[in-house]
Amino acid sequence: MDEKCILDPQRDCLGLQKANMLEKQMSEWREASRNTHKELFNRMRELEKAEAARNEQYDNIMEKLDRLISWQEAEQAKPKKRWEAIVDKSVWAVLAAVIAFVLARIGL
């Protein structure tokens, strides 16, 4: 760094000082850029992990929702089956009562 100016050897070379300063700045900027990229990639990695976890939760929710809908449809179908069974038995009971009444009238 004790380089002297070619034109005036009694003075320090300002161009060399400026070049050294710029080289130091470039090195600092490179390091800052490297750190920024590292932080950016780490953030992207974390976002991808969070998205994967969210997608897994979504899949689990959808699976549970499908099971819930199937269960609900089955439960809604049960009362209809019971009602149909009650109606069917009632019809048979009425028919049996009518037959018994007719048989009683004719004396059998």
TrEMBL record:
Q: Which residues form a coiled coil?
A: 30-64
- Which keywords annotate this record? Coiled coil, Membrane, Transmembrane, Transmembrane helix
Q: Does the keyword Transmembrane apply?
A: yes
Chain ranges passing through the membrane: 90-107
Q: Tell me the protein's name.
A: Uncharacterized protein
**Species, as recorded:** Dysosmobacter welbionis
